[in-house]
Amino acid sequence: MSKRLLQVVFVCLLAVTMLGAGTPNSSFDKIGHKLVCQCGCGQILLECNHVGCPVSGPMIDELHAQVATGLPETGVLNWFIGKYGPIVLAEPIRGGFDDVAWIVPCVIFVLATLGVALLIRMWHRRHAQLQPAIPTAIPNTTTDTMRDRIRQDTDFDS
Amino acid sequence: MPHPMPSFGSFSLLLALVLCTYTLLSGAFSLWAISTGRQLAVSPENLRETSRRAGIASFIAVSCAAFALIWAAFTNDYSVDYILHHTNRALASAYKFSALWSGQEGSLLLWAWLLAAYGFVLRLRHKVDITLSAYASTILAAVQVFFLLLLVFAAPPFAIVPGGVAPADGFGLNPLLQYPEMVIHPPMLYLGYVGFSVPFAFALGALMMRYPGEKWIHITRRWTMVTWLFLTCGICLGMHWAYAVLGWGGYWGWDPVENASFLPWLTGTAFLHSVMMQEKRGMMKGWNVWLIFTTFLLTILGTNLTRSGLVSSVHAFAQSSIGSWFTSFMVVIFIVCLFTFLYQRDHLKAENRLESLVSRESSFLFNNLILLAACFTVLWGTLFPVLSEFVQGSKVTMGPPFFNRVAVPVGLALILLTGIGPLLSWRSTSLRSIRRNFILPCIAVLATAIVLMACGVRPWKDDDATAGIYALVCFALGAGVITAIFAEFLRGAGVIRTQTSQNLAASAITLVRRNTRRYGGYLIHFGVVVMFIGLAGSAFNQSKELEMGFGDSIQLNGYKIVCQSYSQDSNANYDTDFALLDVYHGNKKITQLTPERRFYTASQQTSTIVAIHSTLARDLYVVFMGRNPETDRPIIKVFLNPLVNWIWIGVGVIIFGTFIALVPPLKPGTRRVEVTADSPLEPRNSPLKAPPAFAAEGGPRV
Predict the structure, then answer these.
(1) What is the three-class DSSP state of B609?
(2) Do the interacting molecules here have an ipTM over 0.85?
């Protein structure tokens, strides 16, 4: 039954993903969103909203011109880096030390996940070691205390 | 005396500094004497009481200083340099008031005043635990001394203009700040920032005195939640201000100053979650202490980033030398925290260990992991340009593309955990329980994804496929989490209905009243998911820009915007250019919008006033970009931003949920009884005979 359900879901997913058509690609838009306006506003080049901005207009013209030459995306970006410096890129994508910007958060996340997993494993083992091998008779007063504690621990109040 | 009010303000600040120093020294000395049993000439208890009273008096002194600055703004006292640079005669009264926090010195004074106000409340409520409150009061006084030293020596708000002769008018307030939200956004944000000093002070104090048990967490729970709420409101008001004023069609630009406010929010949220493990199971004690230490340090770092010029930001105050003050202060705090932790670490031993990977505890651990990973990523992205300049000699830009690429997957993981965590039990969850609790949310996730794709949401066919795919995943996960939350409400309300014979709605209200903290928390989660759905809508934003003459129109996804007219106007404060635009959807006129562009004469700066037509599905966001100097016709940019209202609705739900969580729960076995004068209450210890419905209210927990 569940197998049939999975098949139906898969067919539905396949059907809807195959429908429709894509939109045309625009390298001008794509590259324009990888550059930052150099007027000091810190905005993406194609989103700079200052009318009469002395910088964004000429930069957009330069972008049009570079895209029209047929240069690949990397070539256009390199042209801008050459003219304005690496600060013109909206994100560090030049390789070398720039890669550190991307690698460090991933490494920290992976290390932290491993750390948490190890911690859980260690706690779990220690907890298992603390469990008595053979259950012994527990006096009534102790069971009452335990019951209270369990009630407190498993209380929904959180 | 030529300048009475500035002199009064300066004197008040000096007095506050003296009082706070006394609070710190006498507090520390008395606590040391009490803890070591040393005999002093004065009773340590009396000394402690004088410390508390001096702390209360310092609040009055700082209030006088804040009053003096506001008075100077309202009376146009341009002999005060700060007032000269941040106000002018034509400025509206509300904005004269907000001048208190629109510049470096004023905002530091606001910080000091709010800290004094928090300290005032803490010292008045000292009877909750006299010794712990004394520790917290002394630590707060230490923080306050730092800010007062800054105000007295490094950034005096009452400095007189060079030569002492007041100009006829001021230079005006930054036009971007002349917006109603700017009157409440900074105080909210500061209430959040400063508020974290209180749980920090309690945590450090509890560690210093080896406070037994977890009572300090109960004492600070409301402080932390209220502070978290203020910070949430502050950040969201800032988002709304950016959306309505800056005119770029967005609300979050990952600017360093925005990031600075987000960092303590992330660690504060992690603290609010992980502290439950300490309350319930006596676990994560050291971790929690460091979370609140880190949160406080991040609030100071945020203030430092805004003021030191360490990172470039459009929000930042002018570069100044006070960055080194903040850095030194952070180093001192870190050393004190580290030393106290190392010295007292045996006091923080956990009472319990994790028993199962599939449990509420482990979900809290992963929740903390994700929140801290997000915090690290944002901090890393904010400071990487500085590191890059140090290593490579050239600065790089860490713009929205970096943050979106790294932070969005983390955000999605957080939504997933928001759904999973509350469905797991403490200690261990059985397979049967997992199957029972998760089947419905999983169906909701799949059904939403299929329906959305069937409706045409197929982002992999777009140019920017990643954003669309993330949005699709966000919608599907959001639906799953909402289903899980509602299923929990329905399950609980159903049990109460069978117990009390109430209808489902009344049962749900009873359920919430019985456990306000749990169900308030669910409402907050619901609000967060609604907010995320709104944020995901940005993947489908559209925009168009056109120079418009009379009768010209722009078509955008079913909307037609027709230019009826454009004109100019002016008042004492600013000149304005505006356009009158009729908006049609289909053939029906739905509204008229008036986007403006203002030129403020005093500050010689321009600002946009965006016109927004908002619906639940989308915002039509229209910006007057300016006039083409050749044709003199307005340039209009139109954005169609889907689901933006969901963000603000989500914030409203979060606020409501936090209020619910702050309300004390209905105690089992209690009920309200109206008593008339001729039928007095029975003696207190006599059993109260409740009618069946009320008896059931206090019956067994669901």
Answers:
(1) strand
(2) no
